[in-house]
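Objective 1b: paired records.
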Amino acid sequence: MKNSYIIGDIHGCYNTLLKLVDKLPKDAKLIFVGDLCDKGNFSKEVISFVKDNNHLAVKGNHEVLMRTHIEKAMAGEDGQWNSSDIFGGNKTVRSYENSVDVLKEHLDWIDKLPIYIEIENYFITHGYGLPYYQRKDEKKYERAILSNRVDVDKYRDDWEDVSAYKMVNIFGHSAFDEVKKGTNYIGIDTGCVYSRKLTALNLGTGETLDEAVDGQDIG
């Protein structure tokens, strides 16, 4: 546990990721909370790093968007994902230009990503997944686990009462200025792609390490 680090949303910020990893032990076990792609400049490189090094990761909502839209986008079809800065898929498309074989490998890998990972009493998801813990294996709640936010009421009427849960939910998706800790959750997306920083959480000690965004990743 003391050698395991959970890393927040990277969104194609490859240089920032490498600098953060350099601060960690060489044999650290890395676990990613999804949203490896979109918005930043180096989605292909980030996914290659996680995939080729056999690091653990859960699926994020942007992996779903990428999987759904990128093949049409690479064929020249326009859509909201690759034409709107809100989703940032245009930068993902550019990162895979002349790399169709790599893209196919990455899409196969994305298809196999889990929606959650459990390690002892930690429940690792992309969105705030704890209110769906009892239903985590039901397909119809997958979107909610990917997209739920701790401070937004969008799905609140459908939440389970989590007050008695012994699990601690570690998630990304919602970008905070600093790591956000509640009674039974930790939000670790600190807005790397929004010119802030990328954070790694030590699963054993609860300590965090940060790296300010590298300008090459978002320029």
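Objective 1b, second protein:
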Amino acid sequence: MAAGRQLARKFALYGCAGWVLEVLFTGTKAAISRDKKLAARTYLWMHPIYGAAGLTLESLHRKLAGRSRLTRALASLGVIYATEYASGAALRRVLGDCPWHYRNGVHLHGLVRLDYAPLWLGAALGFEWLRDALHAPPARTSASQGVACPTCGTEEPPSDRIAA
């Protein structure tokens, strides 16, 4: 049961992270085009898409664990494009149109923009950071625990601390 809760937590966090990234991206595009409202947007559909993509990228990360961050990010680029294309095609079948139908730039059927590859690569590298943060051991907060030396990692018992 705990594994299911952990999976649901990561799915929700990856979905929210995707929403935030999309809002920042579309808002920045508005600023560049001199839209004084700085209008930003996303779609409710995107949360489960980003959540599933994040879990898929985690799986890819595990398979490529011995490789460099850049290698994993480049492999992730393929997953990102495949997810965007497949989810866009599915939404087009269900809704009659893809919510993010691309009309400008170098695109494939209006579902993915190939000229966004550098931006998606940046997102893949950012995913590496987010994944690491989600998998980091919890920080110690209890006053009864010792304090680890940041240099050597040895622990000083709480009773040995001297107030300055």
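The longest strand covers residues 107-108. The longest helix spans residues 2-32.
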